[in-house]
Amino acid sequence: MLLLAVYSILPYMKPGIPMIGLLNSTTLWWGISILILVAFFLSKNYFFDKRNDDNMLIVWIYLLWNATCIVRGMFVAEIYWDWKALVGNAMALVLPLVIFSATNKAVVQYLLAFYIKYALPLFLIFGLIIRTDAFGFYLIPMSFLLFFLPVLTKRQKLLILCVTVVVLVADLGARSNVIKFGVPLLILILYFFRNRKIKRQLETARLTLFILPFVLFILGVSGIFNVFNMSEYMKGDLTYTGADPEGNITEQNLTVDTRTFLYEEVLESAINNNYWLAGRTPARGNDSETFGVISVEVTGRYERLANEIGLANVFTWTGVIGVILYMLMFFRASYLAVNKSRNIYAKMLGIFVAFRWLYSWIEDMNNFSLNYFMLMVMIGLCFSYSFRHMTDKEVLIWARGIFDMRYVRLQKFLPKRSSNEKREYSSLADLP
Question: What predicted TM-score, i.e. pTM, was given to this entire model?
Fold first, then answer.
């Protein structure tokens, strides 16, 4: 968690920071990334809750297709930059391995506890040397903890709310951070309806979040309505003062369309090079006249290896097949959380995972970062039998255990009903 947090903010360091050159070593971080992936691959044998076997088929298929595309990339790669892109993008495509261990709620609890105890306090240092628009990248696990706000103690609530306020007010121009911390606060409204029968309404909302991007995509391609062209349907002066990519404080417009031209380049590249079905492999990117002016000086190609739009990368690297499998992974996880859970927190998490599918059409870049790691953790919890079958009171103990070890010890003595209603005592880790 700590290494991923640091890795996620390295590109956003302020100029003149000592030792930044050593930290930016590609070889160093590739080695760390590989070790993290190996650790999660091996831990799957110890921590994966096998009660989730039937539901994990889609994750296996998605990883298998990604592996196929990675192998294809070995035959596609021609120059040094192709191989470098293949290694970097391949590690992002393999990161869903985290889902298997994340089905164990104890593993997730310990990961977050480590982050709270060690990584979060270090933000007091990193916050001084990174740009304000990167605060949310380091603090992204706190957005997940917002869902458990109602059951936390006053001190724990105060900590999470203070972090949220810091992210929201530090840079309003960092729209992605504002959205990722703001949407959980909106979803929290569902908590107050937990005692009412809202399963049908939740399922309708979930399906809407999956269908809406397709509708907006068709409207945009047909020229009827472009959701990214906000100046057409939002009036008024929506400017803000924030940091630009160089770290300078400037006045910028919130309604600027920064996505339409990316979609145009990604789609035209796929059609012109005929890789729309199976993808161009993670060794290559999409043709780009806009960013190609910069990359041609290095790679000799008018090509961009990765985009800010997460789904655009999935499409470019793995094609329509990969996009469908990616969607089904989100769909199955959110379905289980909303429809097959006993607690309101899993249901809220399922709605958020459905939202993150929609948001992948806008941003949510799928790279080897803490943000993408936490997304896989949330998907893993949606698949998790043990997490979905906790009662609201059991979630209270689990969530407080992230901050206080006494609640972790208390879990050992929580009674659990078996299928024949005979009382048993669950183990501390609740492993199979």
Answer: 0.92
